[in-house]
Amino acid sequence: MHARTVGPNPSIQIRLQSDLWSAVESFRRNEPDIPTRPEAVRRLVQRALDVTLDPAICTKGRVTAANYKGTQAEAAVLDGGRP
After folding, report:
1. Spans of the chain below 70 pLDDT
2. Angle at CA 62, nearest 5°, toward 80 and 39?
3. From CA 33, how far away is CA 61, in angstroms rounded?
4. Domain boundaries, the chain
5. pTM to 2 decimals?
């Protein structure tokens, strides 16, 4: 999906509650290439941005569940880690 992120790119550190951590781990393990945790987070952020910026899926900045077609793990992450 993305080239390996190294060098002068901005970096962040985050803390996740255990349910959100589990959702990220579930997403990562369900990917065909089992990405690293940082790559999994990058993919989820990109997908969330793609969804929230798509007017067919999103209304006023909020994803409508009826239109969201992602995986359960993605939906859990977008829903704050709650399955």
Report:
1. 1-6, 52-83
2. 50
3. 31
4. 18-78
5. 0.60
The tokens of 19 are what?
């349910």
pLDDT tens digits, 31-48:
999 999 999 999 988 888
Distant-in-sequence, close-in-space partners of 76: CB < 8 Å, separation ≥ 6: 23, 26, 27, 82, 83
Residue 28: other Cβ atoms inside 10 A: 19
**Angle at alpha carbon of residue 22, lines to 75 and 60, rounded to 5°:** 25
Per-residue model confidence (pLDDT) at position 83: 46
Encoded tokens for 61: 């900045």
Q: Which residues lie closer than 8 Å to 74 by C-beta, 6 or more apart? A: 27, 44, 47, 48
For residues 63 and 78, the answer to whether their CB atoms sit within 8 Å is yes
